[in-house]
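User: Need the bound-state model for pyridoxal-5'-phosphate:
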Amino acid sequence: MSRFRADLLSDTITAPSAGMRAAMAAAEVGDDVFGEDPSVRALEERVAGMLGHEAGLFTPTGSLANQLGLRLHVRPGQELLSDAGAHVVRAELGAAAVFSGITSRTWSAPAGRLDPEAALELAQVGVGPYQVETALVVVENTHNFGGGTIQPIDSIRRLRSATTDLGIATHLDGARLWNAHVATGTSLADYGTLFDTVSVCLSKGLGAPVGSVLVGSAEAMAEARVWRKRYGAGMRQAGVLAAAGLYALDHHIERLADDHGRARRFAAAVAEVAPGVVDPGGVETNIVMLDVAAHRVDPRAAVAALGERSVRVYAVDSRRLRCVWHLDVDDAATDLAVAAVRELLGH
Ligand SMILES: *Cc1c(COP(=O)(O)O)cnc(C)c1O
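Assistant: Bound-state model below.
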């Protein structure tokens, strides 16, 4: 349990519920390195099916799922393209370069919104012996540092059609794809089949303690399985963790709409007292970015002041606070956060 009464630091901080713990305790397990854990296999098959792909691979983290996906598509010395705020280039500690010899180029994207034309302008294939060959475009949906932004499916389709013509692969960082699915009603498979590989997190809004899944073709997942073991992430009786993921898929997807509603309500209440700080219309899912610098408040000072009122938020940069809704933030906690932030910005 968090020591804050409204802990909006991240949707990763949820603790497994009693029901989830019971499912974990009851999980059938085996040695997954030998492919003998029935719970892991069930989770991999189920997530692959939901996303319209042949096979899945359970990983301890979303970063690993992304990194296994990237290396399937890009050879050392080739490049990937993404927007400049993407998790794969901003928050995975250079892993694509360190482990896979991948260079990256980025386009800038306000609010992280996908601009297929900006991506395609950077793409180069068949560029001969001295320019870097583009092998992959990465899309993040929803976009974390962009503020929970949903990527319009028509933009993804335009990108996919052009990259297919160019022979460039696509990977979806779908850590929060569940949120995009619930907010738009677009099926997970409609999103998933527009990419060669997709990673999804079970440990964010879905509330599992650990775990992500990478999906793709059976052949690609067989190769990713070898690399997962080579990286030291072949897990044994991982079914206790997979069971938490299966429980989350059964019980915690549709309720993400509650998080979205609370995030919007919070943003609207803050905008009433400090209109320049947040545009409630721009809140699409469970993340609210507050531009407190627009109100001449320093984000780090704001974190400290809110902490004293038992509200925890994250200072993303020198202007903004990030507030994230999840399973463990209810209406009362949202009210507390509204009151604390309004008091901070109201004067
Ligand atoms: C959280 C997150 C990941 C994976 O993070 P891990 O902490 O490695 O599980 C990947 N992409 C995005 C957009 C994320 O928000």
